[in-house]
Specification:
The protein has about 240 residues and is of the alpha/beta class. It is built from eight helices and ten strands. A six-stranded mixed beta sheet has the order 6-7-8-3-9-10, sandwiched between helices. It has a four-stranded antiparallel beta sheet with strand order 2-1-4-5, with helices on one face. Helix 2 packs parallel to helix 4 and helix 3 crosses helix 4. It has helices spanning about 40-50, 90-100, 105-120, 135-150, 165-185, 195-200, 220-225, 230-235; strands at about 1-15, 15-25, 30-35, 55-60, 65, 75-80, 155-160, 185-190, 205-210, 210-215. It binds adenosine-5'-diphosphate and magnesium ion (MG). Adenosine-5'-diphosphate binds near residues 36, 40 and 44. Keywords: ATP-binding, Nucleotide-binding, Transport. One of its GO terms (molecular function) is ATP hydrolysis activity. Belongs to the ABC transporter superfamily.
Length: about 240
């Protein structure tokens, strides 16, 4: 079973075509990284997959179901944003539990899943704090925890580390790689950081101006870039 299948996906805002005929498959358990310059449509593509934007044309199929008309909360996905997007008035625990409460999950299930995520992300000491009393790295871990508790089949990360300093970026990157192994979920990860792309990805999708420029493993793209653009992006000598 494929985790995600995009067929001829297009997205326009007014007369501006931002995504142009995107075809893409993510296999179950695969870690796929989207790279490309600022403004090429990476976030828009994630938002279309998540259902935060509607595709203008084409089909979004998640886990074998066409989800074009299914709302975000019912797509079996969870998204982590660059800006964390935590609720400032809620504690760490309540930020993580909120979605599950809205889904009307039993109290025990909520407690168990939140506790498990807290252990995985080493957030035990912060569970009653508000986001404003946390560092950037801790906030991003809470945001990741909030995604984990929903037990999604597909995680979507939109440049989750770009607000963190270099050391923290490396630690959190390693944590995300560990999560991928532990959870055996499919993940799509947007970044413009070559190191993140090369170390995390099973498969890299290079986007340029709303189109898929090249798809391949990090080594394939590094050794065999289709053109100067891809070569420049992955830092290999052309
Ligand atoms: P990236 O994440 O690769 O930097 P985005 O997906 O954010 O790129 O944006 C791609 C293009 O779509 C940009 O030109 C941006 O200005 C435009 N865009 C994104 N969202 C909207 C929107 N809601 N309305 C109009 N234009 C948008
Ligand atoms: Mg973006």
């Amino acid at each position: 079973m494929t985790a995600l299948n995009l067929t001829n996906v297009c997205k326009s805002f007014g007369s501006v075509e931002v995504l142009k005929d995107i075809n893409l498959t993510v296999e179950e358990g695969e870690f796929v990284v989207f790279v490309g310059p600022s403004g090429c449509g990476k976030s828009t593509l994630l938002r279309v997959i998540a259902g935060l934007e509607d595709a203008t044309k084409g089909t979004v199929n998640i886990g074998g179901t066409v989800v074009n008309s299914i709302p975000p909360a019912k797509r079996g996905i969870a998204m982590v944003f660059q800006s964390y997007a935590l609720y400032p008035h809620l504690s760490v625990r309540d930020n993580m539990a909120l979605c599950l409460k809205q889904e009307k999950q039993p109290k025990l299930v909520i407690e168990e899943r939140v506790n498990k995520a807290v252990r995985m992300l080493d957030l035990g000491a912060y569970i009653d704090r508000r986001p404003s009393d946390l560092s950037g790295g801790q906030r991003q871990r809470v945001a990741i925890g909030r995604a984990i508790v929903r037990e999604p089949k597909l995680f979507l990360f939109d440049e989750p580390l770009s607000n963190l300093d270099a050391a923290l970026r490396m630690n959190t990157r390693i944590e995300i790689a560990e999560l991928h192994r532990t959870l055996s979920a499919s993940m799509i990860y947007v970044t413009h950081d070559q190191t993140e792309a090369m170390t995390l990805a099973d498969k890299i999708v290079v986007l340029r101006d709303g189109r898929v420029e090249q798809v391949g493993s990090p080594m394939e793209l590094y050794n065999n870039p289709a053109n100067q653009f891809v070569a420049g992006f992955l830092g290999s000598p052309a």
